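Following up on my earlier thread - several people asked me to post the actual chain instead of describing it. Fair enough. Here it is, all 191 residues.
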Amino acid sequence: MQKWARLLAEIGPVETFDYAYMAAGRKRPDPAKTLLGVHVAALALGREKHGESVVLIGKSMGGRIGCHVAQAEQVLGRACLGNVCLGYPLLSPSVGRSGVGRSEKGALRDEVLLELRGPVCFVQGTRDSLCPLDLLEGVIAKRLGRSLLHVVPSGDHSLTPTKAHLKAAQTSEEALDREALGAIANFCKSL
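Reply from S.P.:
Thanks for posting it. Predicted structure:
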């Protein structure tokens, strides 16, 4: 996320934060209520420093929690301009496409995306096992809010492409990051 924070700072002010479990060096995420509280506090600080025009950007779980925060803000009448999700975790890590290992109600984490009316930009890799593109495209087709999908060729959940793809396409990871940044910048300008 630090790499993305540096890149995103090229298009606007960026405020980063760590969830409590990350700051403590734990691997297991805090309960959702705690994650939401930390995210809401970071949003309040960002608004204090930079004003009300806010785009929430998060990687993986941070993007998903950001969508929950944006949905809550929407209900309170203080909507964010939009969300950017870098590697959205549409499937639980413990759940495969078959649903085997399902540990929560429903394998697809799409409820917040379907309820959120604000615009969302998804930056997804073609090899992301937590967000198969066909499943995400199905969710996007059902969303009432505007959606943009930028695909990172051969990108995994961290948006890292394979070396084989980079060689075959005669490109670099930095070039693919710049393409994604361009899509995010255009999305933000459209808000």
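The longest helix spans residues 32-50. That should answer part of your original question.
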